[in-house]
Amino acid sequence: MPVTDVRQDLDNLTLTITADFAAPVERIWQVYADPRQLEKVWGPPTYPATVVDHDLTPGGHTTYFMTGPEGDKHAGYWQITAVDEPTSFAFVDGFADSDFTPNPAMPVSENVFTFAEHDGGTHATYVSTYESAEALQQVLDMGVIEGASSAINQIDDLVAA
């Protein structure tokens, strides 16, 4: 399993996931840069993602939805804030209505994903920062740790294919 550590910090409003992959940084970068590859790993196995739009450039947007086992759809968006290809990117991630309008009733996180060479593979750090301890607790209660970990753990199979 690529995920090696998960830390939640209600004082600093962060959730940090670290993972190690047996693939070079450039290959892991492609997973996030290519919308068809991103679809295979953004949602957990029981909630696969469909990426509708994907522009991994500063100021760019990504829209997606995840489809649950009962056919229920859950939309979300990214607003890309920074890109340093192939080592990091930052984005705002939020929940959206079915037309991809941001849902202000749901938590929003600022995210920084970084990828560094490590023992011939890649060490990835995923940091999500929330607006409040309540927002972080809300996503924790929704199962973000289990969902994000199972999604990230799909990357090994994708890059091995």
From TrEMBL:
Signal peptide (from-to): none
Domain Activator of Hsp90 ATPase homologue 1/2-like C-terminal: 22-159
Family per record: Belongs to the AHA1 family.
Name of the protein in question: Uncharacterized conserved protein YndB, AHSA1/START domain
